[in-house]
Specification:
This protein is of the alpha/beta class and 277 residues long. It has ten helices and nine strands. It has a single domain, classed as TIM Barrel. It has helices at residues 58-63, 70-90, 103-106, 111-121, 143-155, 172-177, 200-212, 225-233, 250-265, 269-276, and strands at 17-27, 36-50, 53-55, 96-101, 130-134, 159-165, 182-185, 216-219, 238-240. The two termini are 29 Å apart.
Length: 277
């Protein structure tokens, strides 16, 4: 069982795995025409392997927002993510990768120092392939300071998005005052087109704000065709979730992406769905 004491070990990162979940962009044509699917983006997810498979322990989730551990975990994950990106670039792939960053790490004095060092160490990685997803599991006490840090990241060529927007501490002020490139919505807002809990007004508001600010919107956690259709009907065309693929080990990623491309060339969403299962 994983505990916080594992973080005290010098080789603690060896206990973690990074899994990668595809993010699929969908282009809807005119009525009667086939939808076009494209996948060149992934999210890196930190996981621990247990008896029942990969998971993220609750104690680890708490540690991500603990100032004692936030930098140690965040830097280790970023380093491994950049290493993977470097390998993919060397192999000729231009896959974009999103990596979660906690507010505690974003506001750490060493954060920008770490980012600059990593970008220098992996200079071969185009910076527009890197997206930092700011989680909302903890409040940001100083939005102005956070905005300044994000602006520096943008100047370095990185993309910044808000993760799980609307389910934690984030508010409309985050979206309006932080210079981010996009937002990611949790599936709870589109859980079912027939559900009374489906908050269409919130999603519509976010989509409208995003359009005004020219921001991207990703819906994550999409597992069913009904959820997919709901997301598309609300104007969200970037989709992440088990409907297309569960998080993948790196060694399984290339075959999935190649298989996806083959099925896209067949121009059949049903085939893509069956492959993902």
């Amino acid at each position: 069982m994983w505990t916080l004491s594992d973080l005290e070990r010098r080789d603690f990162i060896s206990n973690f795995d990074l899994l990668f979940q595809p993010i699929v962009s969908i282009e809807r044509g005119s009525e009667g025409s086939q939808e076009k699917y494209r996948c060149d983006s992934l999210e890196a997810l930190i996981r621990v392997e247990g008896e029942s498979g990969f998971h993220i322990p609750h104690s680890l989730m708490l540690a991500l927002d603990d100032r004692r551990y936030a930098r140690k975990i965040g830097l280790a994950v970023l380093t491994r993510a950049l290493y993977c990106l470097s390998n993919w670039v060397y192999q000729g792939y231009s896959w974009k990768l999103s990596v979660n960053i906690s507010p505690a790490y974003l506001m750490a004095p060493e954060f920008l120092f770490d980012i600059k060092n990593l970008l220098s160490a992996y200079a071969e990685v185009p910076r527009d392939l890197i997206t930092l997803e700011l989680t909302e599991s903890a409040p940001i006490e100083n939005l102005q300071s956070a905005s300044s840090v994000i602006e520096v990241c943008r100047e370095m060529g990185l993309h910044i998005t808000l993760d799980d927007y609307g389910t934690g501490f984030s508010t409309r002020a985050w979206l309006e005052r932080l210079p981010v490139h996009g937002v990611k919505l949790d599936r709870s807002f589109i859980s079912s087109a027939k559900s009374e809990n489906c908050d269409f007004s919130f999603v519509n508001e976010v989509v409208e704000l995003a359009r005004k600010g020219e921001l991207g919107v990703v819906v994550e956690g999409v597992e069913t065709e009904e959820q997919l259709e709901t997301a598309l009907s609300l104007g969200c065309t970037a989709i992440q979730g088990f409907y297309f693929s569960q998080p993948l080990m790196e060694q399984d990623l290339r075959s999935w992406m190649q298989g996806f491309d083959i099925r896209q060339s067949a121009n059949s969403s049903q085939e893509i769905f069956e492959y993902a299962l």
